[in-house]
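Postdoc handover notes: sequence design on the structure in folder B. Input tokens:
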């Protein structure tokens, strides 16, 4: 005798064998992927174009009229006398001759001590040599001092050659006087 459980097992096995032996049915496959490219530029342009703009007589934003304002005046031409006077005034304000050691028998031994305004220090000036040129990069001396050269040192003044403030191509010689109340030492050569 066959039990009910065995009978169910035989029926299940028969259906499985019958399904395996029968012709296979095709599985419903997904359609092949095809990329869809949208032209976003034309879609954006069409969406942003106002549909109500065709009947307007003038645009919303009107161009601003060109207004001719005052033009800059041409740069002023300075004469050499004006440039020299400006340089003399500038050097008198910025440089002060504090001390001169004058040796009439040997001019190459003459030197002067010059105080630079704003730098709070003094520099030594010899004929054709100026310590400010060498020290302008390392100390707190102004940059324009590099272009200043010392000419002749006399008993009461120092001749300085410096470029013009407005036109550096022009150089002028300016005589700086010894300040009143300062020292003058005359060497007798002993």
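Designed sequence:
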């Amino acid at each position: 005798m066959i039990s009910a459980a065995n009978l169910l097992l035989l029926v299940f096995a028969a259906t499985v064998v019958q399904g395996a032996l029968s012709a296979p049915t095709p599985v419903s496959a997904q359609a092949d992927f095809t990329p869809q490219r949208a032209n976003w530029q034309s879609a954006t342009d069409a969406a942003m174009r106002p549909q109500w703009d065709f009947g307007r007589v003038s645009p919303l934003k009107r161009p601003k009229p060109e207004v001719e304002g005052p033009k800059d005046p041409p740069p002023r031409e300075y004469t050499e006398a004006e440039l020299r006077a400006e340089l003399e005034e500038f050097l008198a304000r910025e440089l002060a001759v504090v001390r001169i050691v004058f040796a009439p028998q040997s001019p190459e031994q003459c030197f002067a001590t010059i105080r630079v305004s704003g730098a709070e220090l003094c520099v030594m000036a010899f004929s054709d040599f100026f310590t400010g040129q060498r020290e302008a990069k390392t100390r707190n001396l102004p940059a324009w001092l590099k272009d200043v050269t010392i000419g002749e040192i006399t008993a009461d003044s120092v001749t300085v050659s410096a470029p013009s403030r407005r036109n550096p191509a022009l150089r002028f010689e300016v005589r700086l006087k010894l300040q009143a109340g300062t020292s003058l030492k005359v060497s007798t050569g002993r």
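Context for whoever picks this up: The two ends are 154 Å apart (CA to CA). Don't rerun without checking with the PI first.
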